[in-house]
Design goal:
Strand content: 15-25%
Number of helices: 10
Radius of gyration: 17 Å
Number of strands: 10
Helix content: 40-55%
Largest sheet: 6 strands, parallel
Structural class: alpha/beta
Length: about 240
Amino acid sequence: MVPVTESGGRGIFVTGTDTGVGKSLVSAALAHFLVRQGIRVGVMKPVESGVSDLTALGQDGELLRWASGCEAPIELISPCRLSEPLAPSLAAELAATPIDIDGLVSSAKQMLESYQFVIIEGAGGLMVPLRDTFMVGDLARRIGLPLLTVCRAGLGTINHTLLTLQAARGWGLEPVGLVVTGMPAQPGLAERHAPAMLAELGEIDVWQVLTQVEGDPRQKVEALFQQFDDRLLEILLG
């Protein structure tokens, strides 16, 4: 079961082993899954770069809001939206708007006080810089939620995932599970053995292995959430 935070809220911080690993889709699918169980879900994308209209949510933030039905203001769902599709620290520097770390943490706490379960999606991986030497992993530590890591099924995932878990534990974070994405219909040897090796070497529970899905982002979310089972509900809510 995902533990309750010191403030009494329950949720997870979602990171990935790389950009484009499927972190946004998994976060949205988890939100959709919980909502279908009658849970009031809050969602956050604290920092999103590559946002074309800064008066609105970016692509990831909007997908999270749609999947969860979260009615929080966009300033809480995605407090920092940046136009350049770059690492947040560089995008913020070019926009001459330093990222307000304390503001991000405060927004997360507001969400945790307002919803039964909160899903917070990081930007890229844990080592992505937000401001100077302050990384996404530092933000996850400040917020204080357990960590879910999204990783690939293919060759190279062992190294990438174990490095992510090592970094997380070095930060004092609590990695509680993995979701393996992109499992092909006919997996090769690397894909077939990856989940068990990740669980053993990373000393962590593999929550779900998700097969490849097609379509636009919303169609992918609909397809992914149907792959979740009752065991995941027990893990998340007890």
